[in-house]
Design brief:
The protein is of the alpha/beta class. Helices cover 22% and strands 35% of the residues. The strands form 2 sheets. It has a 6-stranded mixed sheet.
């Protein structure tokens, strides 16, 4: 199996730290980088869900700003991240219901681990990851 997601060094540690910081609520944010990867930056966002201990909703203003910046030549929104404070790093039933099949990456932190998934037209597909310098 090949590498499906490449992350700049430190991204995994940052995502694990963000999940720990937000606990017992779900952390969430954006994954940014050049249009064809790798993921070079993490942008933590406010979780505006009605029940942030059980669900996540990325602040729409942050998402709009990131897409606007990308259209202006900034990094692309490659995907999203969130945490499962009391569960494994696999898409939950709620995650599956919220998915739109747009091909973006979902990084999920749970139980002290990170797993990445592609939100494809047929559902979530597990991805392998590696970190690189730069």
């Amino acid at each position: 199996m090949g590498i499906d997601v490449t992350l700049a060094r430190g991204i995994i540690a940052t995502l694990l730290a963000e999940a720990a910081r937000a606990h017992p609520q779900e952390a969430c944010g954006l994954l940014l980088g050049p249009a064809q990867g790798p993921i070079r930056a993490v942008v933590p966002c406010a979780n505006v869900a009605a029940d942030p201990a059980r669900h996540f909703e990325i602040d729409p203003a942050a998402l709009i700003a990131a897409h606007r910046a990308a259209r202006g030549g900034g990094p692309a929104v490659l995907g999203y991240y969130h945490s499962h404070p009391e569960g494994p790093p696999v898409p939950s039933a709620t995650d599956r219901a919220m998915a739109c099949g747009d091909g973006r990456i979902w990084a999920i932190v749970g139980e002290g681990r990170l797993r990445c998934w592609r939100d494809g037209p047929l559902g979530f597909e597990a991805l392998s990851t590696r970190e690189i310098d730069g």
